[in-house]
Amino acid sequence: MTADTPPPQHADDGSGLAARLLRLWPGQEPQYCLLCLDPDGIVVGVSGATEPVLGYPPGDLVGQSISRVFTGEDLERKFDELERDVARSVGYAENDRWHVRGDGTRIWIGGAITAIRGAGGELLGFVKIMRDRTDVRAQIDTLENRVGGLRATLERKDRQLTTLAHELANPLSPLLQACHLLGKPESAHIQQRLLDVIGRQLDTLRRLIGDLRAAASQHAQAPTLALQRFVLQELLGQVVDAGRTQAGARGQSLELLCTDVPIWLQADPARLSQVVLNLLTNALKYTPAGGRIWVKATIEADDAVIRVEDDGVGIAPEMLPRIFDLFTQETASQHLSEGGLGVGLSVVKQWIDLHGGTVEVRSDGRGKGSHFTVRLPLRR
User: Fold this and answer.
1) pLDDT at position 72, please?
2) CA distances (Å), 22 to each of 17, 19, 30, in order?
3) How far apart are CA 55 and CA 134, in angstroms?
4) Other beta carbons less than 10 A from residue 41's beta carbon
């Protein structure tokens, strides 16, 4: 082979094409906007979708702080710094919130920010992915309105059910008295046997109606809440402090991540403490030694959002729809329940429902941790 001979050509195994596609994708992706940030949150690069999503020509954001696209109220809460702090600690942070376009209009963005580290573990910066989900936000608002209407309908049905149970109970006393009169000695022998059957059936019916009335009353007269106005971070701090001893004894890492700006909430602090404690206890139980647990707090739209996350044993997909049902326990991890009956998560849902909030769970499967999210309305 001479010096002028070109190197041999090898068949492309696809890696070259993959590298080219990944290099070209950010500039041609029309829906997902990518912002590259330095460790201080300064935009150092943007993708081609920046203008259709955020309304900024690509060059306008480079060199500017990411805070430029945050709303004024979120800047006061320092959420622009909080999401980077969470990503710096956890590795990423998911955030669905209102952002500001270049023309001043608001847009509901679904996205995430990921901390990018070098080979030595040093923080190089962040990549923030953003997508316009204003249409989804509108659908959620519509569904919430429908849920409110359905809740009112169910309450009316509960009241009707209670009334119906009362009306059904009214004829029982005359019927029982008639059975008593027909049971006199002068009644024929066959009539006595029939009356015994009727009496037993009426007594059973009376017990069933009593159960029905009690069940209807339980829904119609829900436990009351002692509402107070308080700062959510203070409550979470107390619960997390109470859990640190147990976490330390188990060799686990427990971290509270929330903004310094107070999140004022009107709720029942005792019940909400019970909710967070149940979720935290659940995470401590099902996270092995050396595992990590995070309690996070933020605001999304008009909701205060509490997240309790862990990198523990996770939840099997088939268990997720039933995880908040009473006495639900997963067989594969039942040995970790420490004698629990599977009531804690059912209590969580009960109290969050009474607050007019929601609770949901996510897990990518066994061994991949669990993520519980509680949303509570800021305005009651």
Assistant:
1) 94
2) 9, 5, 15
3) 14
4) 19
